[in-house]
Amino acid sequence: MLYEGVVWTTLGVLDWTTQRFTEAGISSARLEAQILLSHVLGCSRVQLYTGFDQPLGEDELASYRGLIKRRLSGEPVSYLVGETEFWGLPFHVEPSVLVPRPDTETVIEVARAARADRAGPCRVLDLGTGSGVIAVSLAREYPAALVVATEISPAAAALARRNAARNAVADRVDVREGDLFAPVRGERFDLIASNPPYIASEVIATLSSEVRREPVIALDGGPDGLAFYDRICGEARQHLAPGGVLIVEHGYDQADAVSARFAAAGFTGIALVHDLGKNPRVTWGTAG
């Protein structure tokens, strides 16, 4: 692994790592190599190529080797570098939270379309905020909004507050500890969004080693993966203002089941939106 006694340039390290990651079945091999190396060198990914012929020092190589070993053991790259990007914004990431996925950006896209007047005041609720990517992104999209984010994990709630501060919206993102709607009893909102756990309990043991590194509490959606949709759809209308919208992310094979729960709860205008991979990903509807 990156043999000692050899002069390793930036490009050489990237090429070697890309090949090794590809052999290990890592889908975004080149990108992850760039992320890890730029983290070690303290530079941007673009800067890697402006100095592609620069040799790495022994300390840099030692640090990089350590990260490569951990990545090959299944540790998510976002945990290794402690951050990721979502909706064009930087976020701290720790093993206490689910790693944000690009698919979840579909929730933000739907929110933008569902509430075209983004300049006016509104109240937004993010259920199970995790690292806070939905809450923070919506606060940035709606500059006059007050966003309440609920989170049952104290560690995740603390991280969400850090991310709100990092993205200059701490004054408008109120992170409250508690289970789903428990911290907002008696309150109403114009928009409720959530990316709840939606993997069936028995499936979790079959997931990749990388996904199994993430907190089970953020993955386990109960026996059929739909437990949280029963609760969210069942309670959301009493927390929505007239004409308010509910937006949820779900698994690609759960669209019909989630839509049925929206209908049973009395939502209208129920619509399904696909993610960039053309998979059914987000369902939303309007409260009467």
Describe this structure in words.
There is one protein chain. With 288 residues, the protein is of the alpha/beta class. The protein folds into two domains: 10-73; 97-286, Vaccinia Virus protein VP39 (Rossmann fold), CATH 3.40.50.150. The protein is built from eleven helices and nine strands. It has helices spanning 10-23, 29-41, 45-50, 58-72, 77-81, 105-114, 133-141, 154-166, 209-212, 227-236, 255-264, and strands at residues 83-86, 89-92, 122-127, 145-151, 173-177, 189-194, 240-249, 268-274, 280-286. A seven-stranded mixed β-sheet has the order 5-4-3-6-7-9-8, with helices on both faces. Strands 1-2 form a two-stranded antiparallel ribbon. Helix 1 (10-23) crosses helix 2 (29-41), helix 2 packs antiparallel against helix 4 and helix 6 runs parallel beside helix 7.
CATH topology of the largest domain: Rossmann fold
**Large-scale geometry:** elongated
Share of helix among residues?
A: 25-40%
- Tell me the structural class: alpha/beta
Strand order of the largest sheet: 5-4-3-6-7-9-8
The CATH H-level superfamily of the largest domain is Vaccinia Virus protein VP39
